[in-house]
Input
Amino acid sequence: RSGSLRIVLSGNSSIARPGDFALTKSMQPFTIECETDGEGVHEVLHVVVPSHVFRRVLPSELKSGLTVPAGERALALAEGVLDNLLQHGQAVAEQPRRTLFDGALAAVAGTLGARDDCLQVRRSLREERLQEVLRYIDVHLSDPNLSAAVVARGCGISPRYLSALLQEHGTPFPDLVWGQRVAAAGRWLANSSPEDISIAEIAFRVGFKSPAHFSRMFKRVYRQGPRDYRSNCLRERAQPVQKDAARGGLYLASSSTESSKEMKDNEQ
Output
């Protein structure tokens, strides 16, 4: 409804903006970065569905961490029903309340099941292994001792097989890890100020062992140092933002309302 959510799950990344629908599965590790709008507000409608209900109603081959752009009428109707249940559900008897809830989920399931971009393409065992590796790296990215040997052991494969998987992926292990760490730091710097968190702390939080090493790696990617990058982002955020018309949205994700200064790390 306000701000945005950046969801990283199973090696996939998506961004949900006002009016969008996002879906995560708690059975798989994921991270959500909450960003405020121009007025420092972040707001979503967050619905938690028990696993057995989820499997009964929604297609099992759904992609993980998917985002559906605003505009799907059935999702807007489902949001209205769920929002009303949230506000007034206790005034309704249990059976009608269950019927309304099941109807809203059915509307969601019908929409997602009809969209090819929401269904998971069946992968080979080798592709599944690669996704496991990418998930493991993403979850343990902040560990400064993360290495190819650690990842191989954590995924139950040999270092040689890991090297072959990443060679097919097209990115050597060091480039993959450092690239993800620099990208995570860049997003953090772009949405924080020196009063919130220092550059050195960001460097340590994303897995760098020293601020100097972080600065060198950051310059390779962004062509400027982290201090200058943050200053430029702060300058851009300080410029007046034209307000868009408010749009409703249904989010199955993280929920909070906070100012940009209150927004901190949302790692899982």
In short: The CA atoms of residues 68 and 115 lie 9 Å apart.
